[in-house]
Amino acid sequence: xxxxxxxxxxxxxxxxxxxxxxxxxxxxxxxxxxxxxxxxxxxxxxxxxxxxxxxxxxxxx
Amino acid sequence: xxxxxxxxxxxxxxxxxxxxxxxxxxxxxxxxxxxxxxxxxxxxxxxxxxxxxxxxxxxxx
Lengths: 61, 61
Fold this sequence. Notes:
Distance between the termini of chain A: 28 Å
Structural class of chain A: mainly beta
Number of strands of chain A: 6
Oligomer: homodimer
């Protein structure tokens, strides 16, 4: 499976926000993240970088 | 490998923009896309949706 983990960059540190993300959709100035189990999180943040081969989505506020 | 393909939504149709994308980084009002071979494309577009399990990144202008 090719899901990715999302990290929120805070004070230069990456904090794990959500694992096994399948979908990412823009939502009200941020994103809706949905994992492979259908669970959703909404976060006001922007993309800093995505590294798909490393399964990494890095967001920042 | 968990790279994805990027499509640009134009007039309701998805046009293949780049295959086997590893990295996606915001760049001047759009994104820099880099595939697993290190080739890069710059596109002025925003994310409409990402479906990682389906290896799909959908962008729109």
